[in-house]
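Researcher: Sequence recovery benchmark, item below. Answer with residues only.
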């Protein structure tokens, strides 16, 4: 087989293919350099147009090289030599490459269609981001399933027989993959019922984050402190999730002081601390006003709560940290006792 391939390829074909491939790559490089230079001269134009051109250029170059390969060696016998025969279908290298092109091209075209065509339609008809994302996912998986079915059929695979085999295997492996299947079904439920949507802010196990992507098996949540969380979709169906999108984002700090402490003094010190935080920090909202409350009596302690409205959850933890630093300094300065601790002077006396 290899010897026949080598004999079937002429030096002229190899030279022609290599020359045109170099020209395609050189053209790709020149256009890319021109686009980057244009982005440097006109930053506003570069933000939208240049990334689109570069993305389009990459996949045009990729498919250009593959099509050039098929065209350059289209008259050779080895490209159409049957690797195996299934019924009336002779599976060749040409057929396998074509099947790959169908799936790969379908993936890229549907991504371009949803990003640049459907996004404009969603904006025109004021369709919210979560619903648009759901439509995009449904269209993507439908097109990819159809492309995969066409490619498998083109190489001689009988989808009816394949479905029967998968059905038998599914019974055997269903018990071992029930969690995967549960997450898959939960992903479909989330996409249709939309209990959470892309862009919303949710709270999971005292971690607040923004929903970045809803996939069929898992959902990607980006938090300010913990980074990216990959959460199985079944969690959102079975657990109680707090949706904080419409709620005010509050930086909250709990403070406990010992019994016998002047509560009015603590309140005034906290008021002064909040003013200093507002003056020295960004991301704090003017409305509503910060709230300071005496909330509870605990064992050997009195609890206060400070709440400051902030613009988003990324700022929240920064404000809380800043507030704790200032409160600690003010309490030391005014000798405010914490539960279970004594002032150094009292301990020595």
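Model:
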């Amino acid at each position: 087989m290899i010897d026949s391939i080598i004999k079937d390829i002429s030096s002229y074909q190899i030279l022609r293919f290599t020359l045109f491939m170099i020209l395609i790559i050189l053209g790709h490089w020149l256009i890319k350099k021109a686009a980057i230079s244009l982005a440097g001269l006109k930053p506003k134009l570069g933000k939208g147009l240049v990334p689109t051109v570069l993305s389009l250029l990459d996949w045009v170059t990729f498919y250009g090289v593959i099509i050039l390969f098929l065209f350059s060696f289209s008259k050779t016998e080895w490209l159409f030599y049957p690797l195996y025969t299934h019924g009336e279908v002779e599976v060749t290298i040409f057929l396998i490459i074509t099947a790959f092109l169908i799936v790969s091209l379908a993936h890229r075209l549907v991504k371009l269609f949803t990003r640049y065509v459907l996004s404009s339609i969603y904006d025109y008809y004021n369709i919210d981001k979560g619903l648009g994302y759901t439509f995009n996912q449904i269209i993507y998986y439908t097109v990819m399933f159809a492309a995969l079915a066409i490619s498998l059929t083109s190489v001689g695979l009988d989808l009816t027989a394949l479905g029967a085999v998968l059905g038998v295997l599914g019974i055997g492996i269903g018990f071992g993959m029930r969690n995967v299947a549960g997450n898959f079904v939960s992903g479909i439920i989330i996409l249709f019922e939309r209990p959470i949507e892309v862009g919303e802010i949710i709270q999971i196990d005292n971690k607040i984050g923004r929903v970045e992507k809803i996939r069929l098996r898992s959902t990607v949540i980006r938090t300010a402190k913990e980074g990216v969380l990959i959460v199985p979709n079944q969690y959102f169906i079975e657990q109680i999730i707090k949706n904080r999108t419409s709620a005010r984002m509050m930086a909250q700090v709990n403070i406990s002081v010992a019994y016998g402490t002047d509560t009015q003094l603590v309140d005034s010190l906290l008021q002064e601390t909040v003013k200093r935080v507002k003056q020295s920090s960004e991301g704090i909202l003017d409305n509503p006003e910060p709230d300071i409350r005496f909330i509870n009596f605990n064992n050997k302690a009195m609890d206060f709560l400070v709440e400051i409205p902030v613009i988003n959850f990324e700022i929240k933890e920064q404000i809380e940290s800043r507030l704790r630093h200032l409160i600690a300094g003010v309490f030391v300065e005014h000798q405010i006792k914490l539960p279970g601790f004594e002032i150094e002077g009292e301990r020595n006396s």
